[in-house]
């Protein structure tokens, strides 16, 4: 029997809007919640990243406490507390109870978070797996506000279950957050403890206290200074995609094209704006909102063609060589550490800066491959090692030149730790999980230059160390035989043994040169 044809009217009834919360409830893997182990780490990571962002922006040295407790099999309570600026009462529920709500999306500035999805995504996962509300408590230094919060998934709106206000005699400021969630706890390379250890490495100005199911760990503050505050910049024409350009056109209140280009972009003056318009065959007096589809596309193309100065780079906040060295040294207890911070540069209109540090010897493992620590905007990347531009650059660097053995396509071998930090206003992650950096040639080039420079410095150190050790060994050997040699020479030359010993010692002290004055002396003697 032929199947009944269904009409468009009937099928159209199924058409309806999907809230962003509903979307992520179904596609939680996009936010890092694809399995219980990763889910637990992701929650901690999102809370800690937020605390560090908030403290850094408020210029407060971060004190962060994290607790992860198993409350029943495969169910955990995660608590995070910081001493940051806190959030005002009116925005507390929105910041955590609405996805795509945040303070970082609409600005171009280096920070850990960008999308307004991290913490709210954690809350969504928590309520999805346990049905429990999140507990939040915050103060900006005045009263303390406490709320129990759930997300209305259909509307993507916060749903406050309970709220209370308390006096704040100690003038505490900061944020406390607690959620219950399904998860699995593991130790090892991709664990919460390791994530926090690496966070302590790239944020040596933070104090992090962790209480996990298997015990406590404290990561002390190594330095008492924060890296410089990054500035906000406007997008550079080379880095703007067509979709963003369209949105900027709709949102601008500039009345003509020259106004739009000079006001909304960095490095576009009146002359360049006129040049862009001329190339795109658009009148400079046109109202931006009146541009049609083809004109917008022409504008986009012309923006890439006109020669412009590179964007400003004070939007970046690299760690700097001193903080890198302190951070890596304190967490690896290596004997020697070097760090290299490259000057800022640009890929596709986006400013970025690369840094690396190498740690050698000391308490680092003696066997196996070098340890690799990868960071983007000071956040450790612990998954997708092999897909990342940082790994590619380390493998592509010729470590044999710096005295380390290396098989082709592999990390170097030896008592070595390699830290690589990529800092940018726009990190080109390979996926929403934010775990690997895409291998743009400009980025790979910078990474390799940094690694080579650090490699050279390590090699110099190792060479000097070997030289000193060799000298010492030679000295010991000669010291042992000098009296015997002097005795034989005394018989042959009839010179006094004591004077022979003195002369021989003089030769050894000068590095045991075969040629030259001393040898002549010895021969004469
Ligand atoms: N500990 C905190 N202290 C102060 N403000 C915070 C804190 N945690 C979050 N916020 C505020 O809440 C907003 C939402 O946080 P959320 O993690 O959801 O997004 P985000 O950090 O902006 O971006 P991302 O999705 O990349 O994490 C932040 O933009 C920030 O303004
Ligand atoms: Mg965040």
Distance between the termini: 119 Å
Low-confidence stretches: 514-525
Q: How many H/I helical runs?
A: 15
Strand content: 15-25%
Mean pLDDT: 91
- Distinct bound molecules: adenosine-5'-triphosphate, magnesium ion
Summing up helix and strand content along with how strands pair, one would put the structural category as alpha+beta
Number of domains: 4
CATH top level class name of the largest domain: Alpha Beta
Shape: globular
The largest sheet is: 8 strands, mixed
The number of distinct β-strands equals: 14
Instruction: For the largest sheet, list the strands in their spatial order.
Output: 5-4-3-6-2-1-7-8
CATH superfamily of the largest domain: Histidine kinase-like ATPase, C-terminal domain
Q: Helical percent range? A: 25-40%
What's the alpha carbon Rg, rounded to whole Å?
A: 31 Å
> Which CATH architecture of the largest domain is right?
2-Layer Sandwich
CATH fold-level name of the largest domain:
Heat Shock Protein 90
| SSE order | HHHEEHHEEEEHEEHHHHHEEEEEHEHHH
What labels would you give this structure?
6-stranded mixed β-sheet, binds magnesium ion, Helicase, Ruva Protein, domain 3, 4 domains, Ribosomal Protein S5, domain 2, 525 residues, binds adenosine-5'-triphosphate
Task: Report on this structure.
There is one protein chain. With 525 residues, the protein is α+β, with helices and mostly antiparallel strands. The protein has 4 domains: 200 residues, Heat Shock Protein 90 (2-Layer Sandwich); 69 residues, Helicase, Ruva Protein, domain 3 (Orthogonal Bundle); 136 residues, Ribosomal Protein S5, domain 2; 62 residues, no CATH class. Helices cover 39% and strands 20% of the residues. Strands 5-4-3-6-2-1-7-8 form an 8-stranded mixed beta sheet. Strands 9, 10, 11, 12, 13 and 14 form a 6-stranded mixed beta sheet that branches. A hairpin with a 2-residue loop joins strand 1 and strand 2. The chain is globular and about 120 Å long. 40% of the residues are buried. The site of magnesium ion has 6 residues, from helix 3 and helix 5.
